[in-house]
Amino acid sequence: MLERCPRCNLEFERVEGHLTGALAINTVVSIIVLLIVGIAGFVITYPELPLLPLVSTSVAVAVLFPILFYPFSKTLWTAIDLRLRPPHPGEVRPGYGDWIGS
Fold first, then answer.
1. pLDDT tens profile 50-83
2. Fewer CB atoms inside 10 A, N or C side of the chain?
3. What residues contact residue 54 under an 8 Å CB cut-off, 6+ apart?
4. What is the pTM of this model?
5. Which of 67, 78, 69, 37 has the alpha carbon at shortest distance from 54?
6. Are 58 and 38 in contact (CB under 8 A)?
7. Residue 8 contacts residue 96 (beta carbons within 8 Å)
8. How far is CA 43 from CA 59, 75, 80, in A?
9. Could you give the angle at which helices 19-44 and 51-84 cross, rounded to 10 degrees?
10. Is 20 in contact with 59 (CB distance < 8 Å)?
11. Tens-place pLDDT, residues 18-58
């Protein structure tokens, strides 16, 4: 990801520790997705329960989903952060950020 937004010049990591929120969102969503995949696999294959396909699918989801979802979680956390802490004057280009917090 870029350090700053090419349109409004907002720095994506506004404060030290900003990544913690993105990691939390990523972790929670990844666990929910993994739980859904596990339950769906169990329900779909119930009487037989083929262990190897269920475990390999769960491992693939547990490894790939957090990597693929991370940019989205970082963007989502930045949006939440902007809503909670509107940008200060000079933090974005003039004309941007006026709608935030209203």
1. 999 999 999 999 999 999 999 999 989 988 988 8
2. C
3. 38, 41, 42, 45
4. 0.80
5. 37
6. yes
7. yes
8. 18, 34, 35
9. 150
10. no
11. 889 999 999 999 999 999 999 999 999 999 889 999 999 99
